[in-house]
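Question: Hello, beginner here. Any chance you could explain the protein record under this note? Any guidance would be welcome.
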Amino acid sequence: MTNLTDGDFGSKATITENKAIRQIVEAGILPLYFNKDIEVMKFVLDVSYTSGIRVFEFMNRGGNALDLFSKLITYVKSHLPGMLLGVGTVCEAESAAKYINAGAQLIIAPNLNLQVGAVCEICNVPWIPGVFTPTELYEAKSHGAKIVKLFPANLSSPDFIKSMKGPFSDIDFIATGGITPDIESIGEWISAGASAVGIGSSLFSDKILLMKQSNDLASIIISCLAMVKVARQNIK
C-alpha cells in the first residue's frame, strides 16, 4: 500500500479545483483515451491541443500505464503549455496516490470511492468521482466533489441529469459512456444540463490514428466544440 506520507504530495498540485472545472466546462468536451504506444498518445494530445482542448483524460489502462503517463506529463508540460492532463479509471486510493506522485493534475474515476477522494484532498488535487444514482451523487457532494462523472451515461439518460439539477444545482456533470461526436448525442446531454461530455473511442477512430490523419481528427474535435456552443444557445 502506498504511504501518503512518503514524499511531498501536496507540492505536486499545480492547479486549483475551480480552474480545472472552469476549463472543462468552458470546452464542454472532455476527450479520454489510452494507447500503449507513446507516439500515438502524443499525436492525440497534440491534435487535441491545437484544436482547442485544454483538459485531457489519460485512461489508466494496461500494465505500462503509469510509466507511460510519467513520460506524457513531462511531454505535455514542455510542449503543450496550459493543457491539464488528468488520469481516469482511477478506482483505488493506491492508484490515485501513485498517479498524483507522477504529476497527475486531476483524478477521474468511474466509481465512487471515498478513499480516492480523501487522497485527492490530502494532495490538493481535483477529484471527479463517478456516480450513477442520487445516493452516490449525494455522497460525492457530501465529501467535497464539485463536479461528477455520470457513468455509464449510455445506461442512464439525459433526464437523470435534468432531474438531479434541481436538488443538486451546484454540481457540474460530465456525461461519459456511449456518447458519439455528433449533434444529436452531444446536444441531448448538454441541453439536459450536462456541463460537459466525455468522448473516447468514437472520437479517436482506428483509421484516423493508423493513418495519423491530423486534419480529420482536428475537424471532428473542432466540430464537437462547436456543437456544445450550439446546444447551449438552444437551452431555454
Observations:
- The chain has a mean pLDDT of 94.
- The domain at 9-127+179-233 is CATH 3.20.20.70 (TIM Barrel).
